[in-house]
Amino acid sequence: MEQYVQRLHSLTIKRGRVLPNEMVNRYYADLNIVNKPFHLKGTSDTCVVLVHGWTSTPYEMRVLGSQLNAEGFAVDAPLLSGHGTRPEHLEHVTWEQWEKDVEKAYKRVKKQYKKVYIGGMSMGGNLALHVAANNADVDGLILMSTPYTMKHEKAGLCAARVMNKFTSYKKKYYPRILNPQPSITQLISYQRYPISSAFEAFDVIKQSHEKLPDITQPTFLIQPERDHLVSRSSIYDIYGRIASEKKEIRVIQKASHNFMGNGKHREVFDSVVDFVKQN
User: Fold this and answer.
1) What is the spatial distance between Cα 139 and Cα 108, in angstroms, rounded to a whole number?
2) What is the pTM for the complete model shown?
3) What is the set of domains in the chain, with CATH numbers?
4) If you write DSSP's letter for every residue of 169-225 in order, what string do you get?
5) Counting Cβ atoms within 10 Å, is residue 44 exposed (0-12), middle (13-18) or buried (19+)?
6) What are the CA-CA distances from residue 117 to residues 7, 146, 220 (Å)?
7) Beta strands per DSSP E along the chain
8) pLDDT in tens, the chain (279 residues)
């Protein structure tokens, strides 16, 4: 856990960025679980599988998971291959392995619960689309900050291909104008990543386009208005292409891409609970 302690120290001291005491205390209290999968037993026959984003860990889904669990739902949050350890472990991990990770989690809980929903954050949402398209018995989808296209996608891909000729890794960048305080996701994510893995993440997104017409399950799409990574049109592009009869959109005001971890948008989490209850 030393890497997480150092990261917290770096963000609060070296960069002069102030974190809320509640966030710091919760983070330190949970240091032993920030890089692990979790399962919360429920009192109903419904389970929600929550899939974290690329370079992050299941811990970013913890607040939403706890709120769902408080309403009686079981929650299962798998750890994607190559995550939760060191960036080097992402090397040679393919997007198909991530899809298998989610599929395995879904199959496991489906044996235990009558109804199973899948919620995904960022690329986790694209993985949820893959699994739901392949398993018609998935009962519903919650897609959070899920990209159809990335901002400045063509330029970004071109730059990555050129950069990959000279270096294998890239450092992450978080716009401070949108994130005056670091999010939980920023604390627990890899701060650098293999460029080859970024291409795998991009493939997850593009391959999910083909799956959209096969999505018939009730779907709840959530996107922050200040998402610095995902194009603004993504939520509408996905909404327009899925075949679901029941589908709804929510755009979160004054929120950035990594809105999940800090628990600031409880009203959004309430709407996720309502979605699971009503579908």
Assistant:
1) 15
2) 0.89
3) 33-178+193-278 (3.40.50.1820)
4) EEE----TTT-SS--HHHHHS-SEEEHHHHHHHHHHHHHHHTTGGG--S-EEEEEET
5) middle
6) 33, 16, 11
7) 38-40, 46-51, 74-77, 115-121, 140-144, 169-171, 192-194, 219-224, 247-252
8) 456 555 555 555 444 444 455 555 565 556 677 889 999 999 999 999 999 999 999 999 998 999 999 999 999 999 999 999 999 999 999 999 999 999 999 999 999 999 999 999 999 999 999 999 999 999 999 999 999 999 877 777 777 788 777 888 898 876 654 555 667 777 788 889 999 999 999 999 999 999 999 999 999 999 998 888 899 999 999 999 999 999 999 998 877 777 776 667 778 899 999 999 998
Placement of tokens 């948008």 in the chain = 265
Q: Which two three-digit tokens encode residue 228?
A: 């610095």
Q: Is 210 exposed, middle or buried (0-12, 13-18, 19+ CB in 10 A)?
A: exposed
CA separation, residue 20 to residues 10, 27, 43, 183 (Å)? 15, 11, 33, 10
Report how far residue 126's alpha carbon sits from residue 205's, in angstroms, rounded to the nearest whole number.
Answer: 6
For 164, phi and psi rounded to 5 degrees?
Answer: -65, -15
Structure tokens at 68: 């769902």
